[in-house]
Amino acid sequence: MHRVTLRNHYLLIKQNLLSIVLYLVIITIALLAQFKGSELFIIFMTLGFSPVTILHYTYYMQAKDMQIEFTTDGMKVFQGETLQIIKDEDIVRIDLYMSVSMYETGYASGRLLSEEYYYAIIVTNSGEIIINNLLYPDLLNIDRYLNLSKFKYHTKLFAFLP
To answer: Which of 18, 130, 143, 154 counts the highest number of beta carbons within 10 A?
Structure first.
């Protein structure tokens, strides 16, 4: 059973944790010392971290009441009190949205903090289900459980949820 846990939060932001701490330290020093031009610096630093903050928040809000469990012939999706059983033959396609470096190498290059965020839209006969890597950290290897021929990969600079 996969669900959002503190461990999943940590796995997703562990690469960015040092950058976030450094950002907070630099902003604090700039504010306390009142460096000339620090306002512009603070604005640019804040703009640099905004996409990651928004991504993490939206990923959490989308997945917080959701649980998934893979079975031999598909998957079970629990959303709150609702259970949806998806069999392999019910899946029309699976769209994976990720950064270019994730697509090409399977890991984030480290150039942008947002590269580690990716999600899948599973299109079934009865609708769509969105699974992000905060809910299921091993999402790039979801083909172990589901039919590989139904995958379609998409690259984005920021993998914002639809």
So the answer is: 130
Domain spans in the chain, listed from the N-terminal domain onward: 2-155
What count of Cα atoms within 13 Å lies in the side-chain half-sphere of residue 86? 24
Query: CB neighbours of 27 closer than 8 A, spacing ≥ 6?
Result: 42, 45, 46
Q: How many helices (H) and strands (E) does the chain have?
A: 3, 8
For residues 46-67, give the mean pLDDT: 82
Closest C-alpha among 143, 103, 145, 146 to residue 124:
146
Determine how many CB atoms are found less than 10 A away from the CB of residue 115: 22
Q: Is the confidence at residue 79, as pLDDT, over 70?
A: yes
3-state secondary structure of 81: coil
2-37 residue pLDDT tens: 777 767 777 777 666 666 777 778 777 777 777 666
CB neighbours of residue 40 within 10 Å: 9
Q: How far apart are CA 157 and CA 91, in angstroms?
A: 27
Give the whole-number percent of the chain exceeding pLDDT 90. Answer: 12
